[in-house]
C-alpha cells in the first residue's frame, strides 16, 4: 500500500486564503473548519527491491477555500457526506443512490454555496 505524506510547504495563495481564519484557528484548540481543498503531487519515493518499505507519495495543498458561514459549511458537509457514501457504498443497496447523489452534487457544485 502506498503511504501518503503531506508536504509542509504552505503556498502564498493558500496562506492568503487561510489568513482571515488564522486568529480563530489559534484560539479554538478543538476547532473544525469546512473547506474545499485541492492537492497536487509533490514527490514520490519508491523503495528499492531489497527494502522492506512501502512506496510513498507526498502531496501539497495548492488551493483552499474555507466555508464562510453556517450555510456554506452545511452545504459542504452535505457534499462531503455524499462523496463519502459514493466511495464506501460499493456492493451495498446504497451504491447506486450514493453515486447518483454525489454525481449530481459534483455536476451542480457551482450552486453549492448560494
Written overview of the protein:
With about 110 residues, this protein is an alpha+beta fold. The protein folds into two domains: about 1-65, no CATH class; about 70-114, no CATH class. About 40% of the residues lie in helices and about 25% in strands. The chain contains four helices and three strands. A three-stranded mixed sheet has the order 1-3-2, covered by helices on one side. The mean pLDDT is about 85.
Structure at a glance:
The protein has 114 residues and is of the alpha+beta class.
Attribute tags:
single chain; 114 residues; alpha+beta; 2 domains; three-stranded mixed β-sheet; 39% helix; flat
Largest sheet: 3 strands, mixed
Helix content: 25-40%
Strands of the widest sheet, in order across it, are 1-3-2
Shape: flat
- Count structural domains: 2
- Supply the number of helical segments: 4
Low-confidence stretches: none
Computed Rg: 18 Å
**Strand/helix succession:** EHHEEHH
- Count the E strands: 3
User: Which class best fits the helix and strand makeup?
Assistant: alpha+beta
Assess the beta-strand content as a share of residues.
15-25%
